[in-house]
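User: Can you help me understand a structure? I only have the sequence.
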Amino acid sequence: MNKENAIETARCLLQVKAVKLNAENPFTWASGRKSPIYCDNRITLSYPEIRTFIRQQFVSTINEIFGDIDAIVGVATGGIAQGVLVAQDLGKPFAYVRPEAKKHGLKNKIEGDLKSGQSVVVIEDLISTGKSSLEVVDSLREEGCIVKGMVAIFTYELEVAKQNFIDKNVSLNTLTNYSTLIQTAIDEHYISDKDIMSLNDWRENPEKWSDDRINL
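Assistant: Let's start by predicting it. Here is the structure, written out as tokens:
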């Protein structure tokens, strides 16, 4: 991860409020967990300059780390638009993977023309635990694809995610991360000292932080 580009990516996310920080009124994730941070990177697609910057960072990362590949694969739904932009820039085929196979038509789980033996890089918008993202890797490997790695805009840097990627032997590279985002938010005066403490506490033990708020 390039430090200057990671800071600029964090600045972009904060600027368009793709990342929202609120320790006083925490957000509820789909899992039911409480969190002082919520990330919706789809918002970046509405801003051409930021969208272009993110695409360029994806392309640069893929070229530097993975070299030549056969195709780009997006994780539905957050990685689809970003993946298309990257594939177009690289001049590579694009496909995406659904969370589950369709119940009708061809009942596809993988949408696009991928062949066994092809090397691919997976595009994701953010990583929390990594569970759903890594299920995409499983689906691709079952089809015989060679997954060279995954690139995402942002990671919460949760230990469970780190271990999940190690267990699946998947290289994860992100444009920015939780540590960089929080430091940038401090430097740019987006958050108060009280917020900083709460955000750091959540980062150290998100389960306990969430349970404490649920039980209030």
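Now, to help you interpret it: The CA atoms of residues 38 and 138 lie 27 Å apart. The chain has one domain: 3-201. Let me know which part you'd like to focus on.
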